Structure formats: C-alpha cells, structure tokens
C-alpha cells in the first residue's frame, strides 16, 4: 500500500486564493482593505524571515501589511505601548506579535494586552476560552486550524474517529485537541509523560504529532490506513557533511508503508500556517466591521 | 477484591472545615468576611433547594451569604442589572447565577457579564481560557475540581496515568480533561459519538463518568484496580412501586467487583461541589484583596 501525500502547499495556495478573492468584496463594503500588523522585537534571523514572509503574503492577498520592528533592548512597556496603538488603530484588523520575545519581556502580559478581536494568532485567554466552551466567535490558533482543514480535506466527516494528539502546547496540541473534540472525534492527548506511546498511537485513525522531536513516531506505531498530520519541523544533519535537512516528528519514509495519508515536511502543515493567518485576518476584519464572514474560508 | 469506597461526604466536610478555619484570618486582614451572592430566577423547586443549601453552607463557613431572587418573568436586562450591581459590590467576592435560566434569557450573555474575578463557578470564557492555557490565576469549575481533589486524595500523584473522561460538557467533562492533563495524565475524552466505549474505558487507570445516563458504565468495562469517579446523579424507579432512588452513571454494585476505588451516588462527588464553591469563594476573596491564598485549600 502506498500512502497519499497530503499536499499542504497546494491546499495553502488554494486557501490564500480564496482569501484574496474575498478581499475586494470586503474593501467595497468597508471602504478599506483588511489590515494585519506584525510586531517583531529584536533581530532573530528566523523570526525576521517569518515576518518578511508574512508581510509578503499579506500584500499578495490584497491586504494592508504593517510591520513594527523594535530593538532587542525594547522594554515591555514600549512593546505594550505599540500593542495599545495597534488596538486603537481602525485600519488594523489583526495583530501578531512574533514569538519568542526577548527573555526580559513577559510574553503572557503582551498577549493579554492584545484586543481579543484582533488576536489573529488566537493565543489570548479569551480566544482560548471561546475555543474551550465551543463559542465560534473567537480566533483559533493558525497551525491547529490549518491541520484541521487538511484533515477534513482528506477524510471528510471526522465524527466518531479516534484521534491522538501528541504534544500539549498552548499553540498546537491543546487547541488541536479542542478542535478535534468539536468535530466529535474521541480525542486522546499524549505527551512526554505518556506511557507506551506506541500503543496509544496505534489505536488512532488520526494522529497529529506536535512534539518537536525528529522522526520520533515510527511506522510500526501507526495503524494501517491512519491519517497522519506532522506538525514538527526539525533541522537535522544531512547525508553530506555540513549539510542539514528538515524532518518532521514522524519517520516519513517508515510511515509511508503503513498509513493511509500523511503530510510531508516540508510542504505539509508549514505552508498552512500563513494561509490561515490571512484567513483569520479576513475573518477578524469582517467581524469588526459587522459584515457576514464569506462562505468557504 | 473489594473496592474502596471514596467518601466524598467526609472529604467535603474536611474541606469545608479547612475553609471555615481560614475565614477568621481573612476577616482580620480584610476587615470583612468573604461574601458569596447567589442569584435565582424563577421558582424551580430543585434550584430553590440548591440555593438554600448553598446559603446555609456559606454562613456555616462564616461567610456572608447574599441571595437575590427574581421572578421567572424577569427580563435578561433585569438579571444583567443585578449582575452589574454584584460586580460593583465590594463585599461580594463570588457571584453564582443558578442554572438553568428561563428559556427567554441567554445564559451565555449572563455568564459573560459576571466579573471573571468573582466567577466562582468558573464558567466565564476568561476562566475557561486560563484553565486551557495553564494560567492558575483563574477560577476552576467546582464539580471537576472536586473530582480532582478526590482523585488526588485516593491516588496521590496522577502523572502518567491513563485517564478517560466520559462526557464533554463545559461544566464537567471539558474542564475535567484540562485538569487531568495538567496533572500529566494521558487524557482521552469520550462522548456520545465514541465507538467501542467499553474498550476506551477498559484501558483507563482513572475513569470520570459525567454523561447523565443511569448505570451506563458496566463493571466489565473497568480495568482491574481502576479509580472511578461517578459524577452522574440520575433518579430512577425504586424497588417499591412509586418510590425512586438515585444512581450514578456507573453500575456501582457491578463495578465494585472490578475497580480499586469508586465514589458512591449519593455521597461521592455531590457533596464536593458546594465545598469547592466555598473554597473558590475564599480564594476569590483573597485574590481580590491582594492577600496570599492560604495553603492546603
């Protein structure tokens, strides 16, 4: 049996196109484009690359992109003041503070300062709470929502399926479990303290791996025909000296002989995150303007 | 093997005594007793009984008890006005709006209006969100927190244990799963759409049943030595005609031959709920006054 490879890159492009198609309608109704502000503190090279990609994707979708860059020495109060200005700025629908922040800044305090209606990352406790209680008016974190979209694209109705989420972070694992529960999966959350993880994984129709440990999940752990979503992006030594390559949390080549479908790394979940960020910004813009959210995004 | 019966009534009495013991210290520091306000709309007999019990337990613990009763015909705005007054009342640390509310009132809107710092039921989205992201400054719903206390009393450290929660309500199932995850259990949430529920239950060291279906969980479903917390309170026909009796979601007599420990119905989880409500009120009072929360409650 050969597994289907879930093409996250292609699906992300389709989602971005759907978002871009909906922008003119919003602009006509609201008299302005949707706006996304990204705040970067310091010069971390990886974060700089992410912020640049986000900015490009935002303008490519026809949205307004604002970038605020603060030096690594910026104080928490300086950052909070930027957040307050963006909260008050009517042309800004989404605010994303690029994480991680320098150690002297309290991330939780910064996230708490973002207007929940503009929290397109879905990290504010109000949005986490809405997700937990099933209130669909909240913003949902981009990566797990992207994973869910890929799962539904692949499997259709997920109701009654056994799902295992490996990892319990606030950014991926916990919201992923909430989303799968809302789809009426029987959901198990596994993590570093889980005993016999291979047995837990083996009974799952759906496996979402989000632990950040290269190729930890082996093919033999996976049930025949399972759908596997690999959130891990781990850099490891490559075949040639001095070269590196990216691998997921699942041993991809090993898994291919067992599963029904799997996301590759790279090209699986990764591209979905920015696409969902644009989607969340478009949704936030409609909600803020009191406009109905377009179907199918 | 005979199972241990977890005496929730006795543990609840101990908790109430610990809360009562801490009240004079609070009163000395704050210049007032902790205060709990309970709001009842309409004349539902069961709700009236609950409200009366809560009031008695509150004063028995040395706290101030306020009761607001509105007619069943009260409008949502009238109820919201009561909530606003209680939010602003400095002697009120906890506000509990007795559910269910009459059909013409939007429960979610009423819960959203309660100051999260006074939301001793833990139902506000801010408190649900804090529980979801692991922020311990929030209020945790009384019934699942009471279940967790009984589990820890019985089993000590829960880390690495397999736990199954049957039921996914916002009031019990979902917060229970969050609490068990925070204790580093491997947590599975099962519900009406779960396939092969008996198999799911059979692999669990800890079973929390919160579905409201009389004696649904059979003894043969339970792993040898499991600890079972039965949240269900179901009234069924009794042995004599015209008589009724209370049973849980677990077939208690059947389970006794399999499990390591189990809560009875009545006398298990039930008495814990009011005790935790008093505990939450005491905690809210300390947090509102900027006083350190006493150890061991």
From TrEMBL, chains A, B:
Cellular component terms (Gene Ontology)? cytosol
Q: Which Gene3D superfamilies match?
A: Leucine Dehydrogenase, chain A, domain 1, NAD(P)-binding Rossmann-like Domain
HAMAP family per UniProt: THF_DHG_CYH
Q: In which family does this protein belong, per the annotation? A: Belongs to the tetrahydrofolate dehydrogenase/cyclohydrolase family.
Protein's recorded name: Bifunctional protein FolD
Q: Which organism is it from?
A: Tardibacter chloracetimidivorans
| Alphabetical list of PANTHER family matching this protein | C-1-TETRAHYDROFOLATE SYNTHASE, CYTOPLASMIC, C-1-TETRAHYDROFOLATE SYNTHASE, CYTOPLASMIC-RELATED
Which gene specifies this protein's sequence?
folD
Q: Where is the Tetrahydrofolate dehydrogenase/cyclohydrolase catalytic domain?
A: 6-121
Spell out the SUPFAM superfamilies in the cross-references: Aminoacid dehydrogenase-like, N-terminal domain, NAD(P)-binding Rossmann-fold domains
Pathway terms, separated by semicolons: One-carbon metabolism; tetrahydrofolate interconversion
Q: What does this protein do?
A: Catalyzes the oxidation of 5,10-methylenetetrahydrofolate to 5,10-methenyltetrahydrofolate and then the hydrolysis of 5,10-methenyltetrahydrofolate to 10-formyltetrahydrofolate.
Keyword tRNA-binding carried by entry: no
Subunit structure comment from the entry: Homodimer.
């Amino acid at each position: 049996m050969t597994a289907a490879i879930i093409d996250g890159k292609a699906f992300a492009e389709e989602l971005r196109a759907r978002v871009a198609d909906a922008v003119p309608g919003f602009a006509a109704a609201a008299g302005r484009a949707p706006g996304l502000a990204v705040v970067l503190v310091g010069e971390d090279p990886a974060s700089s690359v992410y912020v640049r990609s986000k900015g490009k994707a935002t303008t490519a979708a026809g949205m307004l992109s604002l970038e605020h860059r603060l030096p690594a020495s910026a104080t928490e109060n300086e950052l909070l003041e930027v957040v307050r200005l963006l909260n008050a700025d009517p042309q800004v629908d989404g605010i994303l503070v690029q994480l991680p922040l320098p150690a002297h800044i309290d991330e939780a305090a910064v996230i708490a300062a973002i207007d929940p209606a503009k929290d397109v990352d879905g990290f504010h406790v109000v949005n986490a709470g809405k997700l937990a209680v099933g209130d669909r008016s909240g913003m949902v974190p981009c990566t797990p929502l992207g994973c869910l979209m890929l799962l539904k694209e692949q499997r259709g109705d997920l109701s009654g399926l056994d799902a295992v989420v490996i990892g319990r972070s606030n950014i991926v694992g916990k919201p992923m479990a909430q989303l799968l529960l809302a789809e009426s999966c029987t959901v198990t959350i596994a993590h570093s303290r889980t005993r016999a993880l291979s047995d837990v994984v083996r009974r799952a129709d759906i496996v979402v791996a989000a632990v950040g440990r290269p190729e930890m999940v082996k093919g033999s752990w996976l049930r025949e025909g399972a759908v596997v979503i690999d959130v891990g992006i781990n850099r490891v030594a490559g075949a040639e000296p001095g070269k590196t390559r990216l691998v997921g949390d699942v041993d991809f080549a090993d898994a291919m002989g067992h599963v029904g479908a799997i996301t590759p790394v790279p090209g699986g979940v990764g591209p979905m995150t920015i696409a969902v960020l644009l989607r969340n910004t478009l949704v936030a813009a409609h909600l803020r303007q009191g406009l109905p959210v377009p179907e199918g995004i």
